[in-house]
């Protein structure tokens, strides 16, 4: 289940391998001796290029740790992480920072927008810092995809939470990264705004050929993905293709012993 598999090519591969990122026998441990905690336990996984992957699991299962290691935001104790054919484990800080800036996009629960900048300036900020000029045609397409054409001159305080997260999604897409990682990207949004943002991420995969990896507790959010990975005790214990919210909730309840009142879900499958 967790071994490498042959994955069909999707749009936007640009001749690259069909695997955007992969982990091989990845271990992440915290502490030493009796206090040692194994957050990831010899994880093998391929992230398919041009697809939307959701990572789920109970609190403490290692899902955020896995995403952070895949994204180069955290180091591993053992094993290897690859972005396309580049091994990122062991890269020096300067090279890793450049790789994250040039090849990876991020969308977090907190919008992380600068309040003094307009929406457009926030979107182009990473490229401005890197000294790169935005591709206007691509930028216009991204702005259209996330529905921000009429809000580019507004500052964050003049935007709703959903609109601010759309700006964050556009910022992640604007530099044409190889992969976008989202850590609970709709966690601060109401259900309607969250559905809009998830719809834009889905469109970025279907229409722009983007690769998206998202950590979530929410079965409804996971249903936007092509594939769901389930973690428990630092291991990938199951996966699901073409998920629905109901199927995801049933699988999560199975892993929680059939108790709908887990720390992660209420009886309707919404995050608590």
Structure overview:
The chain has 272 residues and is of the alpha/beta class. It has a domain at 49-69 and 92-255: P-loop containing nucleotide triphosphate hydrolases (Rossmann fold). Helices cover 32% and strands 24% of the residues. It contains eight helices and ten strands. The strands form two sheets. A six-stranded mixed beta sheet has the order 6-7-8-3-9-10, with helices on both faces. The chain has a four-stranded antiparallel beta sheet with strand order 2-1-4-5, covered by helices on one side. Helix 3 packs parallel to helix 5 (161-174) and helix 5 (161-174) packs parallel to helix 6. The two termini are 30 Å apart. Mean pLDDT is 85; it is low at 1-15 and 260-272.
Overall pLDDT score: 85
Radius of gyration: 18 Å
Which descriptor suits the 3D outline?
A: globular
Number of helices: 8
CATH superfamily annotation of the domain at 49-69 and 92-255: P-loop containing nucleotide triphosphate hydrolases
Number of strands: 10
CATH architecture group name of the domain at 49-69 and 92-255: 3-Layer(aba) Sandwich
Largest beta-sheet characterization: 6 strands, mixed
Report strand %: 15-25%
Q: What is the percent of helical residues?
A: 25-40%
| End-to-end separation | 30 Å
């Amino acid at each position: 289940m967790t071994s490498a598999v042959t994955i069909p090519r999707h749009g936007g591969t640009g001749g690259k391998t069909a695997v955007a990122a992969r982990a091989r026998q990845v271990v992440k441990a915290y502490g030493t001796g009796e206090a040692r905690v194994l957050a990831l336990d010899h994880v093998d996984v391929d992230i398919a290029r041009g697809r939307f992957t959701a990572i789920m699991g109970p609190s403490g299962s290692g899902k955020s740790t896995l995403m952070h290691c895949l994204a180069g935001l955290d180091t591993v104790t053992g094993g290897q992480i690859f972005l396309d054919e580049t091994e990122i484990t062991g890269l020096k800080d300067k090279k890793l920072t450049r790789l994250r800036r040039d090849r990876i996009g991020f969308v977090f629960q907190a919008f992380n927008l600068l309040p003094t900048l307009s929406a457009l300036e926030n979107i182009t900020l990473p490229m401005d810092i890197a000294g790169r000029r935005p591709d206007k045609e691509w930028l216009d397409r991204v702005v259209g995809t996330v529905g921000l054409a009429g809000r580019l001159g507004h500052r964050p305080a003049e935007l709703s939470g959903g609109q601010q997260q759309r700006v964050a999604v556009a910022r992640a897409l604007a530099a044409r990264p190889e992969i976008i990682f989202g850590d609970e990207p709709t966690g601060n949004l109401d259900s309607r705004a969250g559905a809009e943002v998830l719809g834009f991420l889905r469109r970025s995969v279907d229409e722009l050929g983007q690769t998206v990896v998202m950590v979530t507790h929410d079965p409804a959010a996971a249903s936007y993905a092509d594939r769901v990975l389930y973690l428990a005790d630092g291991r990938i214990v199951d996966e699901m293709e073409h998920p629905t919210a109901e199927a995801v909730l049933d699988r999560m309840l199975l892993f929680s012993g059939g108790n709908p009142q887990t720390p992660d879900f209420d009886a309707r499958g919404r995050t608590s």
